[in-house]
Amino acid sequence: MRRLARVAPLLLAWTATLSLAAEQPPASVILFIGDGMDEHQVTLARNYLYGAEGALAMEQLPLRSSARVQTVREDDPGQFRYVADSANTATTLATGQLTSLGRIATSATTDQDQSTILEAAQKAGLRTGLVSTASLTDATPAAFAAHTAHRSCQSPADMAKAIGYAAATQQCMADQHSRGGKGSIAEQLLAANIDVLLGGGKRYFAQSSKGTDLQKAAASQGYKLLSRRRELLEKGPGSKLLGLFAPGHLPVEWIGEGNRRAQPIALNWLGEPQFSEPFACVDNPDHRGTPTLKEMTSAALTRLSADNAKGFFLMVEGAAIDKQAHRRNPCGEIGELRAFDLAVQAGREFARSHPNTLIIVTADHGQAGQIIPLPEYFLAWGNRQYPPGYYAVLKTRSGELMAVSYATNAPPNGRGEVHTGVNVPVYLQGIDAAQVPPLMDQRQLNRLMRDHLGLNAATD
Known about the structure:
With 460 residues, this protein is of the alpha/beta class. It has a single domain (33-459), classed as Alkaline Phosphatase, subunit A, CATH 3.40.720.10. Helices cover 30% and strands 20% of the residues. The chain is built from 14 helices and 22 strands. The protein has a 10-stranded mixed beta sheet, sandwiched between helices. A hairpin with a 7-residue loop joins strand 3 and strand 4 (80-81). Helix 2 (39-50) crosses helix 12 (330-353) and helix 11 (320-326) packs antiparallel against helix 12 (330-353). The longest helix has 24 residues, at 330-353.
């Protein structure tokens, strides 16, 4: 009896522990990546949408940090480059390892596959999803589920093409099936058996591999094929989803009035700068009928969480923040960052009823486009002062004016703006503050996600 009296409290404690474990909701991760979304782009969108005292949904997450963006050289992986691209940074977020420009989850020079968090999650029995406003074969979504020497290896038709600007060690031919490779990114995405794939890129999947049409192959694998917004909104939980809502990237949500963008400053015959008139942002008619990023995110969360006792990993990309900055299109940038922030809001709403959800909002790299003084500042200096590059003045929602400058590539021959080497913001929810250092690198973000999902080397 005495022994039973001693053992009984231990049995009760053990039973209580098991009960708590059974009640613990499954761990899930939603990783939001705003492509090119550095502090300049965040501030630009916040000021336009909500004014100087406003805040985006992502800025209201309880924790924040700053992440270093790191890239190694293809010809010498022991040395760093200080400006990245989406392929190598998405690879680091996906794998926790560094690589060189253009690579998709493969190592610099040696071309070895790098295991991704999505693959580790699948091995652990978790559901997985990729959502993007870009083609699903674009660099960021690709890096979580494919392994290629270069981001340009998007479809079967690309595999025999030489990439003139890439190193000899980064040609698509190395990934051809005939050479023992895994094939194009589109083929690898389908082979990865991901539960939800939503974005653009229909033309890359409208091809054949080994005599088999890729979309028919997807249907035979149990994917429900979607091509219209209505189909997505009507689709409930159930089958795997492959949504291809545009031939390439999805159209942006906003454009400038009269389709206006930033322009070089014109000079009159006296050499005085002539600033163009301010303009506002309006809905893009070409986006009608296209699902929003929030709608795609909500559909993915519904599918991934339904009757799921093990949790999931979901990556959501706002891709065109970067693409519109390349084009010096501030309204395109702001509209896409707004769309991305609304998707973050959907993630936060989901987490309220799914408390073991880690939300991370970050960017892959910095971009061009910064807020600078209005024309009155330059005109006050004798009518001959003006900023370099491309310049626009926006009429914000609050009625104030805001000037934006793009100056990483010179007019008139600079075809587009280029990335910058700045740190990127990190916003978090669902994690202990003690786990979040004030400054980290992108490899640490991968470790935070793996830790939350209980993924370690044994599951890779």
